[in-house]
Amino acid sequence: MMAQEHTQERSIDERDREVKPANDNTCPECQGHITQNGDNGEATCESCGLVFEDNSIDHGPEWRAFTSDERDEKSRVGAPTTQLMHDKGLSTTIGWQDKDAYGQAVSGRKRAQLQRLRTWDERFRTKDAHERNLKQALGEISRMASALGLPESVRETAGVLYRRAVEQNLLPGRSIEGMSTASLYAAARQHGMPRPLTEFADVSRVEKIRIQRAYRYLSRELGLEIKPEDPTQYIPQFASSLDVSDEAERRSRELLEVATNNAVHSGKSPAGLAAAALYAATHLTNEQLTQETVSEVAHVSRVTIRNRYQELLEVYKENDQPDR
C-alpha cells in the first residue's frame, strides 16, 4: 500500500516537473502560445489556460507611458555619456526657461538671480585650464562636423583622439583649432569617410598647411594606424554632388581600378584621381560635365584634373577596356 502511495506521489512530482514550457513560447500540454500578463505577473497558455508562473518580477519601470513624450517625461535616467562634452555629459545645468515649478514665468529679480547662478555654474564646471581647453576644442569639433555633415560616430572618435592628445601633453606650442581640426580629419579617415583637406580648411579657423602639420604630428605621436586614402572612397560623394548617372559612377570605378593595377595612382592626390575619373567617365557615357564644375566640387585645380584625365584614359586604352 505504501509502495503504491509512493509511486503515485512520484508520478505527481514528475508531472509537475513536466508542466514547464519546452521553450519560452510553447505550451507542453497543447502546444499553444504562452503569454505574459504584466498586471498580475502570470504566464499562461492561451489555448488551455495552464498557468506556468505567477507573481513574476517585473524588471521594467514602475510607471506606465503610452507616448514617447510621456516616456521622456517620466524617465529618471539621463542621456548616455558622450566624448563631445568636456565632462562627458555627467554634470547638470541650470535650465534657461526662467520658469518656476508650475511653468509660470519668474520675476525680473529672480531672472537676474538665475542668470548669476548659471554664470557661476558654468565657471565651476570648467574650473581649470584643462577643462576649458577641452570645452573649446570639443565645441569646435562638433561645429565643423556639423558643417561637413559627418555622422556622430566620427565626432565621437575625434573627441577621443583629442582627449588622448591632451592626456599625452601634445598641445603645448599647438593651436586648439589646428589640433581639433586634425583630430576630426583623422577620425573621418579612420571611418573610411575621407574628405578633401580643403573642405576642413574651409570650415576651420586655420590654414590648410597648419592642419596638415597638426595631422602629421598627431598621427605620429599617437601611433595612429590609418590606411592610405583610396580614390574610390571619394566617388560616391563627388558623384552625388555632380549628379552623374549610375553608369558614369560605375565607369569611374573601372578607370580607377585599372589605374591602381598599373600603379598610376602612386604619388597622386586621391581626390584629384577621383575627380578626373568621374570627368573621364562622363565623357565615355556622353554626359555633359565641365572641368570647372568638377574642380569646384572636388576642390582640386583644373590643371590637376586635365593631367590625371589624360593619364587615366591612356592606361585605360592600353589595357583594351571595351568602350561600353
Automatic annotation (TrEMBL):
A GO biological process of this protein is: transcription preinitiation complex assembly
What are the boundaries of the region Disordered? 1-39
Keyword check for Transmembrane: no
Give the matching PROSITE patterns.
TFIIB, ZF_TFIIB
All residue ranges annotated as the TFIIB-type domain in the record: 23-53
- Gene3D superfamilies documented for this protein: 1.10.472.170, Cyclin-like (1.10.472.10)
> What's the short name of a Pfam family annotated to this entry?
TFIIB
What the entry lists under SUPFAM superfamilies is as follows:
Cyclin-like (SSF47954), Zinc beta-ribbon (SSF57783)
A molecular function annotated in GO for this UniProt entry is: zinc ion binding
In terms of superkingdom, the source organism counts as Archaea
Bias kind Basic and acidic residues: ranges: 1-21
Repeats (sequence): which ranges? 139-222, 233-314
Residue sites binding Zn(2+) per the record: C27, C30, C45, C48
* Keyword annotations: Initiation factor, Metal-binding, Protein biosynthesis, Repeat, Transcription, Transcription regulation, Zinc, Zinc-finger
Return the GO cellular component terms, semicolon-separated. transcription preinitiation complex
The keyword Protein biosynthesis is assigned to this record:
yes
> Polar residues compositional bias: what residue ranges?
23-39
- InterPro entries membership: Cyclin-like_dom (IPR013763), Cyclin-like_sf (IPR036915), TFIIB (IPR000812), TFIIB_arc (IPR023484), TFIIB_CS (IPR023486), TFIIB_cyclin (IPR013150), Znf_TFIIB (IPR013137)
This chain's function reads:
Stabilizes TBP binding to an archaeal box-A promoter. Also responsible for recruiting RNA polymerase II to the pre-initiation complex (DNA-TBP-TFIIB).
Give the family per the record.
Belongs to the TFIIB family.
Name of the protein in question: Transcription initiation factor IIB
Annotated organism of origin: Halobaculum saliterrae
